[in-house]
Amino acid sequence: MSTRRIDTYRLELRKTGVMKTDALVYLHERMTAESEALNQLRDAASIDPGAIVVGTPDIHVGYGVPIGSVLGTEEFISPAAVGYDINCGMRLMLTPMGADDFPVERVADAIRRDLPLGEGKSNPALSLGGSALERVLARGVSGLLSVARSNAEIGRILDPERMEADLSKIEDEGCLQADPGVMSQKAKNRGASQLGTLGGGNHFVEIQRVDRVEDRRAARALGINEGQVVVMIHTGSRGLGHQVASEHMRIAVDCAARRGLTMPNKQLAYVPADSVEGRDYLNAMGCAANFAFVNRQVIAALVRNAVARVLARSLGMPTLYDVSHNIVKFERHGGRRLYVHRKGATRAYPASMMRNTVFDKLGQPVLIPGSMGTASYVLLGTESASESLYSVNHGAGRVMSRTAAAGKVRRRDGKILKPGMISDKRFEQTMKDVYLLCEDPHTIKEEAPDAYKDVDLVVDTVVGAGLAKVVARMVPLAVLKG
DNA sequence: ATGTGC
User: Fold this and answer.
1) Which CATH superfamily is domain A3-399+452-481 in?
2) Is any atom of nucleic acid chain B found less than 7 Å from the CB of residue A202?
3) Which nucleotides along chain B are within 7 A of a protein C-beta?
4) Distance from the CA of A408 to the CA of which of A58, A321, A461, A471 falls in 20 to 30 A?
């Protein structure tokens, strides 16, 4: 057999057919993965003989490459192995308050007033002019800091001092190598009006209560206490990143064809990293990644302002950490330099890989959200995760498709074409303890807790395999979604 | 994920 179970947590996909190397999947023996997702991972193992190919416990089918994959390559890069939502990621912010004293619903209502939810939304209050946008694309959060310092109106919303304090708590300090000069005007235009918007799908802002601390020492070092209110943000680079991804996936198909590179399917098109097409993608992807870091920074400010308005005082609300889910970066692993694509996967560096950061003793914080009705986790990277290029999953992973969960509804007359698998009653039951604000009540069941895997079992797999250790578990109090 | 469609 080409698939071999190694232990309770690991599955090996042995080199067969188009594969140039083995692939490793972290999958608990009590869990299953779509065979199509595993085939996509096999395809991804065909592009570079020196590649490291890993599937995470939430692996599922994506465009060309599965969501929940890590692909470390020596020579080639693939826009599909990053995906459409470039630098989609998570941020966790702390409050000094316990859940019993916190006006959860009023704060959620206040956030909603300032934060546009759902697809296609723009935020006129934060619309950026050309040169401000260029600064943000080229320099990420530090670019935003300089915009906030030179523009009084934006500075009032963003609070530059608090932003500066956040910098060391963001992966790569919120800035990747990037060149706005390689971006299309169309991509820039889509971004200019979308800063400070949440987006749709699985993106969210969630007010949570720390339910359980599992590592007291680490929790103390991070400022986490049982019963405390925290806020989690999940969003990405919006239409700008989508535009960059689609343009470069098309360029990659043409470039690969011109160079006679073969691939199992066109969705997986790849290009030499050291080529015009490769460098342009990395520079454009960097811009989109910077835009996403900045978007989470802006939303953090909107949340802080909403909280301060309701409580009539600022709570500070420092950032615990901000991580990327969809990105490719040139990293050193052992003696090798690899282009590490993480698609629906989180970097989880141990302390030894966090030199020159504030986490050099502790390791990198890792944020894993569950579904909107279930727990989320804070973990820390460990030294034993070299096998996954120090990477873990990014969430619970779906067990049913969006249409299977919510059903398909004909828009014109409202007639149901195909009923969803989750009844309204069951949905309300699973959400009874959570205050839900959403833009579109007709599609929200796509995100129902029952549509996702059991996040506790997914995290058990990560811990059991030695990829990270749990610091704390949080439960949702209120959630805002597109 | 996405002004969700070549």
Assistant:
1) tRNA-splicing ligase RtcB (3.90.1860.10)
2) yes
3) 1-4
4) A58
